[in-house]
Design goal:
heterodimer; A: 3 helices; 33% helix; B: alpha/beta; Rossmann fold; 5-stranded parallel beta sheet; globular; disordered N terminus; disordered C terminus
Amino acid sequence: MGTKEQIKETLYNVAEDVLEKLAFIFSFPEDERDQMDYTTAVATRVSFAGPFSGALVMAIAAEALPELAGNMLGIDEDEETTTEQQHDALKELINVVCGNLLPAISGKQSVFNVNMPEIVPEGESIIKDDRPQPVSVAKMDIDEGQCDLLLFIDGETAIQAD
Amino acid sequence: MGVKCSAFFQPGARNPKRRGYIKMSINVLIVDDSGVMRAMILKSLRMSGLPLGETHQAANGQEGLETLSQHWIDLVIADINMPVMNGEEMIERMKENTEMRDIPIVVISTEGSKTRLEQLQQKGAAFIHKPFTPEKIRDTIKDIMKLGGSDGNQGTN
């Protein structure tokens, strides 16, 4: 397990790779910018348990969802995707990010159980009371807006030692 | 159980009961709880140049087994983490069934644990990690179905 900086770098690398390969979307790290406005974003969350437990949250500008889902489904630009398809695409995206992230920060021998991703209901905070602070946040700009990834790990102090 | 025969035949690669068909086309069952992922896999298969026959889709292992009992399937492409019945249990049930045990299985998943991957390989499944490329799917299918190929890219598991 690495330091927080190493975890953040891994988070950026995995997110960039998955966004590009799965959704054909290029992302640009914008670590210095403020966190995006989560009240206007669409967010998805997936929790996991294994050598450590926690959750990964992805918040993305609502305007970016049609392109993301359209790219993943391979449909023409003039065709529209349904909200269900857009949410399904977002859930698949975070599922793949999480599946690639955990072994990258914990080692390939580690076994994690990753739960089904869920869309965070509108009006609900993406940050749960029992996980007040993310261990790491990746802030990226994409064509149609912004995208933030927040990694929460229970018992955060346990992972800070190299 | 109504079994519908596909035209697929690969000498020595399958159950002898299935011999006798000479025109190649592969009937595929895609099992994944994500409709988007099923669409992506289907798109990749169509781009792959493989001789596709019928394609069927199921949202979990239980639905997958039901589809297998109703249609002739030459290849199963399955996810691991799914509700109702996961991919691992579906593969175990297939291996217990004489009609299904020889059907090649490709698992496409985000699973990153080496331990779990070895368990799947012991069950005879090939594995593709998400995110994948159409080329990776093509080469893995060619390899597991012993289809060969002139591009020399097979067998890249």
